[in-house]
Amino acid sequence: MRILVVDDTLSVRIMLASLLRKWGHEVIEADDGDQAWEIIQREPVRFVISDWMMPGLDGPSLCRRVREADFEDYVYFILLTSRDDESDLVEGMNSGADDFVTKPFSRGELEVRIKAGARILQLQQNLAQKNTELSDALGIVRRDLEAAARTQLRMLPANAAEFGPTRFDWLFSPATYIGGDSLGYFPVENDLIAFYTIDVSGHGVPSAMISFTLNRFITPALCRLAVAQDKDGRALSPERVVECLNQEFMDHGDDSFYFTMLFGLHEPATGLTRICQAAHPHPLLVSRGGSVEELGGGGMPVALLEFADFDSFEFVMQPGDRLLMYSDGVTESISPEDVQYGIERFKEFLRARHELDTPALLQTLRGDLAGFRGGEGFDDDLSVLAMQYDVPAA
Amino acid sequence: MKLTNEEKRGVLVVRVENERLDAHIASDFRQAMSDHIERGHARLVLDLVAVNFIDSSGLGAIVAVLKKLGGKGALVISGLHDSTLAMFKLTRMDRVFSLYDDIDAAVTAVSG
């Protein structure tokens, strides 16, 4: 170990230095505090044994300067005192010294005190190394999560997508980088659009992985399960798609795993819409005049119970109607006073802001929720899918 | 998490004392209920009169307990409020679990 010995008395310095060298240490010597300070700034020194009384910068002042400099590596500091005076001890400790050796010192005592110091430096170094490893690992995890978050966003369909008179907009905000919410829409066949919103129980990476899988699984081909053609025309049964997902994802998690979803089919030509509600919050129908109605009669979650059965309900969208499908992260947002945002506040918000166009409505909602929560960070994933029928001319 | 247990006429009544049965306690709750089942309790009443909010994790945990019973025995629920009942209705769990207004009615139904 490299040890800096600071003493203005040559005889003491020589004696100390030769002892330390005999014990196998590398010794640097300084005549006084000022010279020691120059050395410490110039080269790596992690162990200092310094006399107390010296012309110019004395021992405690040197120690204080070292502490204030806050070097990256800890410097272990032993002060030599000539007497066991309590006020000296207090001053020495206040200056940040680690240990004290009273002069004249015994060789045995000095040796064990240096060993104690070396142990502490070793521990400190181990800790610093662990810290570096941890922060490196954390950096990797964070970069991976950020990349995953970008992938998740890219999987979502284009915002402001139009299918004839029908337009979709969405708001998506995972609680951590990535989350278990998902949504989508696409044409299934001529004049038929499928749309869905999903909330996988839990959040973070495990939920996101299921959510990714689901997104890939729900394809136009799967959605054709919900369409039957006969001589009377087209019959829509979106629950058949949800039944299929229920079987397919039954064993994808532990016994408490499930997801909630709305899966719907919509005919742009007629406004006819049929939705299977699987434990997802009731969609809200906001009319052009600003009335807000909760739709649906509930339904079981998906992938929780093998015997679950699903049904669907139908309605016809009127020009200017907007259907808002949201995850419970919206209504279960909590204020700092522990109050829930709640469905009534959400409906009131929609009534009050119904004249906003959909993108502005969703951004305002996000701001309103952040204001209510007292910050941008959300505890739960948050997603809203808005389907607007007969887009008013700009 | 705080649960209080009481045996009535051979039925184990477990009352959740927390106001929220949510992600923070769902896993502990599930474990504690599993322990009861492993110790041989097969007829259980879950009293939720003190609970005013159940989130998706809480609901998942309750269903996991039901699955743990594996069709042998019974798990019924008492003491739901309007808010928690709404959650059961939204998810149709009111068709999966028998619901009772209070513990006595639940115990009578299960003690058989």
Notes on the structure:
- The complex is a heterodimer of chains A (394) and B (112).
- Chain A is α+β, with helices and mostly antiparallel strands.
- Chain A contains 11 helices and 18 strands.
- Chain A has 2 domains: 2-128, Rossmann fold, CATH 3.40.50; 157-389, 4-Layer Sandwich (Phosphatase 2c, domain 1), CATH 3.60.40.10.
- Chain B has one domain (3-111): STAS domain (Transcription Regulator spoIIAA, 2-Layer Sandwich), CATH 3.30.750.
- Helix content of chain B is 40%, strand content 25%.
- Chain B has a 5-stranded mixed beta sheet, with helices on both faces.
- In chain B, helix 1 runs parallel beside helix 2.
- Chain B is globular, with a radius of gyration of 12 Å.
- The relative contact order of chain B is 0.20.
- The interface between A and B is medium-sized, with 21 and 21 residues.
Major sheet summary line of chain A: 6 strands, antiparallel
Structure classification of chain B: alpha/beta
Q: For the largest beta sheet of chain A, what order do the strands appear in spatially?
A: 6-7-18-17-14-15
- Order of strands side by side in the largest beta sheet of chain B? 1-2-4-6-7
Helix and strand sequence of chain A: EHEHEHEHEHEEEEHHEEHEEEEEEHHHE
Mean pLDDT of chain A: 92
**Which CATH top level class of chain B fits?**
Alpha Beta
Alpha-carbon Rg of chain A, integer: 35 Å
Number of separate strands of chain A: 18
The SSE order of chain B reads EEEHEEHEHEH
Based on DSSP secondary structure assignment, what is the total number of beta strands of chain B? Answer: 7
* Helical coverage of chain B, percent range: 40-55%
The percent range for helix content of chain A is 25-40%
Q: Any low-confidence stretches of chain B, pLDDT <50, length ≥5?
A: none
Radius of gyration of chain B, rounded?
12 Å
Chains forming the largest contact: A-B, 21 and 21 residues
Structural class call of chain A reads alpha+beta
Our estimate of the beta-strand percent of chain B is: 25-35%
For the record, the count of structural domains of chain A works out to 2
CATH-defined superfamily of chain B: STAS domain
